[in-house]
Specification:
By secondary structure, the chain is of the alpha/beta class. It is built from eight helices and nine strands. Strands 3-2-1-4-8-9-7 form a seven-stranded mixed β-sheet, with helices on both faces. Helix 3 runs antiparallel to helix 4 and helix 5 packs parallel to helix 7.
Length: 232
């Protein structure tokens, strides 16, 4: 079947390893993606985040020695590699056999592979930027960002009960809600560096809850969905 559309999707480490590895989420994700590749002809480029795995390594190292920003970054990057290899193994029957790190490498993957797994590359940014860069490389105008919250909020809903959900927001207004710069371990709905690039390149981001994959199905089908649309 000819590829009908390529979906760039960032999967937060908080979904893959919220504490222990969430095999229920992984099974549901594989089921949805596999069905979409066979029934709709879609191809998926999935970028794995580091999540709690990264923070555990960063915190442990910090208790033993003083860490540089690069130290924190590399621990986070290698955590995305571990999570990415987990995803590549799960999708091994339909996935490209090499995990992509450098965004340029996505252009070398033959069309026969309906799933491509990617992860972190260099210090200085998160996997959100890699997702946006990959979208730019292949000409995609949308990135799906799966996290463990339903929407982007005016503040962290896990710590502030008064945080208000946002269903639709421009990049200009969204960037007012987040820091200007990215730092290792930053907890923000989307990497500030990636947000600037997405705004510049007119790339839309759909922020969805990966634990409620019906929202992802609705979004892919063009139906009303639970989540936040960020765009110019």
């Amino acid at each position: 079947m000819k590829i009908s559309e390529t979906i760039v999707m960032s999967v937060g480490g908080s979904l893959i390893v919220p504490d222990q590895i969430d095999t229920t989420f992984l099974k549901n994700l594989k089921s949805l993606v596999s069905a979409e590749t066979t029934q709709s002809g879609r191809r998926f480029i999935i970028i794995a985040g580091g999540g709690k795995t990264a923070r555990r390594y960063q915190d442990a190292a910090g208790e033993v020695t003083e860490l540089t920003r690069d130290d924190l970054d590399w621990l986070g990057i290698h955590s995305t590699h571990l999570n990415g290899h987990l995803l590549r193994t799960i999708f091994r029957d339909i996935a490209y056999h090499i995990m992509i790190k450098n965004p340029d490498e996505v252009l070398d993957v033959p069309d026969q592979y309906r799933v491509i797994i990617a992860a972190g590359y260099r210090p200085g940014c998160s996997t959100d930027l890699r997702a946006v860069q990959i979208a730019e490389k292949i000409g995609a105008k949308t990135v799906i960002n799966l996290s463990n919250t339903d929407y982007v909020y005016t503040d962290n809903p896990h710590t502030n009960p008064d945080a208000q959900k946002i269903e639709d927001i421009t990049w200009a207004d969204f960037r007012k809600l987040i820091p200007d710069e990215w730092a290792p371990g930053l907890s923000a709905p989307f990497d500030p560096v990636a947000a600037k690039v997405a705004e510049r390149d007119n790339i839309e981001v759909a922020q969805l809850n990966g634990l409620k994959l019906d929202s992802l199905r609705d979004y892919l089908a063009g139906r009303p969905f639970t989540g936040t649309r960020i765009h110019n």
